[in-house]
Each structure stands twice: as C-alpha cells, then as structure tokens.
Write a structure and sequence with these properties.
- The complex is a heterodimer.
- Chain A is mainly α.
- Chain A has 11 helices and no strands.
- Chain A is flat, with a radius of gyration of 21 Å.
- By secondary structure, chain B is of the alpha/beta class.
- Chain B has a single domain, classed as P-loop containing nucleotide triphosphate hydrolases (Rossmann fold), CATH 3.40.50.300.
- In chain B, helix 6 links the parallel strand 7 and strand 8.
- In chain B, helix 3 packs across helix 4 and helix 3 runs parallel beside helix 5.
- The longest helix of chain B has 16 residues.
- Classes of the chains: A mainly alpha, B alpha/beta.
- At the A-B interface, helix 8 and helix 9 of A face helix 2, strand 6, helix 3 and helix 5 of B.
C-alpha cells in the first residue's frame, strides 16, 4: 500500500514540481516586494496635489491595468530587444519585471483607496491640534491606512502568485512550466496537473485563511 | 480676542457666509444657534481655518488668519476644537490621543506630556480609561476625551462644533457638565449647539444665524425670552 503511494505518478512528479514552486515563489515575492515599493510611490503620486505627477501616475495605472499581463511579459521579453534598449533581459528578469509593474499598478490603487478611506475628520482633528500636514499623514492617516491595506495586499499576493503561471510562455521554470515539461516525458498529464494545482492551493488557501483572521482581528 | 470682520465663505457658487461681523472677548462663552444649513458650523470652522476664508478677515489676538505669512499651525495650538463626531484617533489609546499633539507639536517628552494628560483625564472623569482604545468608550466618554485632547495643547480658545449632537440623549449631560466646568474656569468658548438649555444657562451671549448672516445676538435671556428678529422668533417657536 505504502509502496503503491510512493510509486504513484502523483508523488513521482513532486521533486520536479518543487523545483518549479521555488521559482514561482521567488518571482512572486521579488515581484511583490518591488511592486510594493513602486506601487507605494505611484499611489503617493496619485494622491499628490501636483497635477503632472498625478497625471503620469494615473496613466501608468490605467495602461498597466488595461492590458493583459501575458501581453506585457511578451512585450518585455521579446519586444524590448537588445537593439532597442541596449541590454538583454533574461526570462526570469522579464517575469519579475512583469509582476512588479503589474502588482504596482494594483497596489497603487490599494494605497490610494486606503488613504482616501480614512474619514476626513481624522485629518481635521490632527490639523486642528496644530500638527502639520506631514505630521498628520505620518502619525494619524498612514497608521490607519496601512491596516486597511493588509487584506487587499494579501489578495494581491494570491493574484500575483497565480499570474506567474503565465510565464511558462517564455520558458521561466515556474511550477506550471515544470509540470508541462514533466508530463511531456511521462504522459501523466492528469496526475501532474492535479499536483500542480494542489501546490498552488497549498499556498493560496492558508493565505486566504490567515487574511480572513487578520481582517477580523484588525477589524477593517 | 477673536475678531471676525465681514467674513464671506462660498463653496463653489453657493455662498454660505454672507458677511459676518462679530467679536468674541476673553473669557466669554458665545453660543451660536440656528437652523441647519445656516452656516454656523462653517463659521466655526473658519475660526481655525479648517475652511478657507473666501473674503474678509478673522483676527485672533490680532493675528490675521488670512495673512499668508501667518503660521497657521502655531495659531491652531491656541484654538482647540471639539467635533460633532469626536474624531478620536482609533489606533491610539485614550492617553496617546491626548499626548500626541503635545509631543509632536510642542516637543514635550513622553513624561511631560503624560503629566499634562493625566490631570486632564481626571478633570473629565476618565482617569481609569487612560489605556483604553476609543472603540471601547461610549459616545459621551469619547467626547470627554476629545475635550481633554484639545485642552492638552493649553489653548486660549475652545471651539465646539455641535459637541452633543451625535450623542444618545442620556449621555448629553456628562459632556455639557464638562463644558460648563470649563466655562466656569474662564475658558473663552464658541459653541455651536442645539442645546438651548446650555446656551441659556452657560452662554454669556447667543448668536442666532440664518442664511449665512447673524440675524440677532444678545444675552441669552434677551434672545430666548424676547427675540426681536422674525426668523429668531420662528426658529425658537419651533424648538422650544
């Protein structure tokens, strides 16, 4: 019985798939980290009173959100040739860039929405006590806004994680790509894809549960 | 002294204040009454520049709020404000709500700020709530914390914007009592209120506003018992 399980095509695919999972997580985490920084800046830009900065950031968000990530990554990987930009981008870099710019566009909206969602009385209370605009943002608005960003950011993690599967088209060795490589040899397509999906779920379901708990705890 | 000179305020095309002239003297308690939409809250919010002034002047101890050279943040430390919806900082404890501005604006140490805050909490009867978060307080308690928070900056003036309008009826009294104590200590106060009992008992002067202008003002007895203006008569007959 135990031997049968150990020898099953489900289990046999795992070492290969784990290799892919590491890559999937690397791209997701690196992309989200950079996306958070870029998205934070773009979000601040959208809140800026400077119309030019606000305009640039709005265009960025609309362009990125309005085009499919698959088209974006093909554009970055094949479209931006060495002739055009003077350096070559490998598949992994292209994937991380694609996640970064994509997550950044959504995170920018998360940041902006969270700041906007803080009741205007909070700002007024801060200013009426003599705090400057900057101090009011730093000590009153941001701490509350950050809390409200956590659930949608967790959501973005799940979305970005799943988006990485698209990068199999540029042969990034993420988990779906590794699965395809594996079943092309073994022809165990059903079993392999079941395991690929289980690996995704092992990450996404606990994330959702943690988020829901956090949401309740933070009361947002 | 607060001097309001020909104050106009418009939101877009809508003129909310159409030439207000008033003076609030030291230690005076002025209650502003009037129907909703009469501009009384807007007037109050112009006194610490939460609303930009369209034209006219507001002078606080001679400093012109409309002068671009005026350090508005410094001036606001002299003018405390209490809001209808409390606007406590929900991510901070009661004590932190009170000490934030003294620490960040007046550069007090945590210790000094606490020494300011604790007696104020006692004064509003909430010493035991120092470490509580605003969410766990009743409306009346929240408003008393908000008063303590404003007082922590040691302001010369206190502005109250319908401080009891969002409270359950049974909680109104505790907030009015704190305000009355404050008035008795000689705080200069401008109170926008629907509490006619308070206006009559505590107010040195009552201002009745309607349609963006001061329709009538005088001592409470005179305004409440023998209003001269037709609008005042109409308003009082509806609410008294």
């Amino acid at each position: 019985m135990i031997e049968a399980i150990l020898e099953s095509p489900y289990i046999n695919s795992l070492p290969t798939l784990f290799e892919g999972l590491k890559m999937t997580l690397l791209i997701t985490i690196a992309g989200l980290f950079l996306g958070f920084i870029l998205g934070g800046l773009v979000g601040l830009g959208k809140l800026s009173k400077n119309k030019l900065i606000q305009g640039i950031c709005t265009v960025y968000v609309e362009v990125v959100r309005g085009t499919p990530i698959l088209a974006q990554v093909l554009f970055i990987y094949y479209g931006l040739t060495e002739d055009l930009i003077g350096l070559s981008i490998n598949a992994l870099t292209a994937a991380i860039i694609a996640i970064t710019i994509n997550a950044a566009a959504y995170i920018a909206e998360i940041v902006r929405g969270a700041v906007y969602s803080i009741e205007k009385g909070q700002r007024e209370a801060g200013r009426s006590l003599g705090l400057t605009e900057k101090q009011t943002m730093r000590y009153i608005i941001w701490p509350q806004a950050f809390k409200r960003m956590i659930p949608p950011l967790g959501n973005q993690f799940v979305i970005s994680l799943k988006d990485t599967s698209l990068f199999s088209v540029i042969a990034v060795h993420e988990v779906l790509y590794m699965g395809k490589q594996y079943y092309n040899v073994t022809y165990e397509i059903f079993e392999t894809l079941v395991m690929v999906c289980i690996l995704y779920l092992i990450i996404t379901i606990p994330t959702s549960i943690i988020l829901r708990r956090l949401e309740r705890k933070l009361d947002v | 002294m607060i001097e309001i000179k020909n104050l106009h305020k418009s939101f877009g095309d809508v003129e909310v204040l159409s030439g207000i002239n008033a003076t609030i003297k030291q230690k005076e308690v002025v209650c502003v009454i009037g129907p909703s939409g009469s501009g009384k809250s807007t007037l109050l919010r112009c006194l610490n520049l939460l609303e930009e002034i369209t034209s006219g002047q507001v002078l606080i101890d001679g400093t012109d709020l409309t002068d671009p050279a005026t350090d508005i943040n410094k001036l606001r430390t002299d003018v405390g404000m209490v809001f209808q919806h409390f606007n406590l900082f929900p991510h901070k404890t009661v004590l932190e709500n009170i000490t934030l501005a003294p620490i960040k604006v007046k550069r007090m140490s945590d210790r000094e700020a606490k020494d300011v805050a604790i007696p104020l909490l006692e004064k509003v009867g909430l010493s035991d709530k120092a470490d509580a978060y605003p969410d766990s307080l009743s409306g009346g308690q929240k408003q008393r914390v908000a008063i303590a928070r404003a007082l922590a900056m040691n302001p010369k003036y206190m502005l109250f914007d319908e401080p009891t309008s969002a409270l359950d009826p049974e909680l109104v009294g505790e907030v009015l009592q704190v305000m009355k104590d404050l008035a008795d200590e000689g705080m200069t106060m401008v109170v926008v209120t629907h509490e006619m009992g308070f206006a009559r008992e505590v107010g040195d002067r009552v201002i009745f506003m309607d349609e963006g202008i001061i329709q009538e003002e005088g001592n409470p007895e005179q305004v409440f018992v023998d209003p001269q203006n037709e609008r005042t008569q109409g308003f009082l007959s509806k609410i008294l």
